[in-house]
Design goal:
Layout: E1 2-5, E2 9-12, E3 17-21, H1 34-43, E4 51-57, E5 65-71, E6 77-82
Antiparallel strand pairs: 1-2, 3-4, 4-5, 5-6
């Protein structure tokens, strides 16, 4: 699988590390049920079949965080953008 890095061009997936789906809101650590919320956040992800956004880190390249739109059934990548571009 090749990932189109905005800085480095098309690179092999072995240069990247993924942390999974993008967009899942991080739980509030001060909430009374924080332990259960973090367990759910870390271990009970949906794992949907089809297109989804994921965070990938270009560890052996430019060391940028990317948001990649990838189909989990075919591994076809529709787009890859810098993760910080979606943060306000």
């Amino acid at each position: 699988m090749r990932i189109p890095c905005p800085f480095c061009g098309s690179r092999d997936a072995s240069e990247f590390v993924t942390i999974g789906e993008a967009g899942a809101p991080r739980p509030e650590p001060a909430a009374p049920d924080a332990a259960q919320n973090f367990f759910t956040y870390a271990y009970l992800r949906d794992n949907l079949a089809g297109p989804g956004e994921e965070y990938w880190y270009h560890a052996f390249g430019c060391r940028s965080w990317l948001k990649v739109l990838r189909d989990t059934r075919t591994h076809e990548i529709e787009s890859a953008t810098l993760a910080r571009e979606g943060v306000r």
